[in-house]
Amino acid sequence: MRNAVPGDIAAICRFGEQHVAPHYAPLIGQEAADEQVRRFWNDTQITRAVTRGLVVVAEAEGRLVGVGQRGRRVPDRDSDHVVYKLYVHPGLRGHGIGPRLINALTEHMDADKVYIEHFVQNERAGAFYEREGFKVERIEQGIVWRSRPINRP
To answer: 34 near 26, Cβ under 8 Å?
Structure first.
């Protein structure tokens, strides 16, 4: 687990292309899944997030196996902290990478609470976040917003 660096940008974009659309297509449709990749896993978006120090990656045997990205609900303002990306290689889910990504994303947040969003159709993510202590705050336009206190060591 480590902070992403500029040399990771291409691998992060590839990770999104390889894993995000196939995961979401059965849940939200192929067109919407492809749009998620185009909007949020492109070079411009990933470069901006990496250079701002908002992305963490998990590696195993020299390859990228997980990505997490944090931010603020209203960028560049003192607003709620949000985890916007939390993805683990499908073959490695259930091995503790997801919780470690969450901890890496939240360890330097100057807040008491973190929010996360996911598509309402993504029941697997919902169950994972429940296990990690996130509680549903609201559901709007097919997106579930959850929050939990930030765990401090």
So the answer is: no
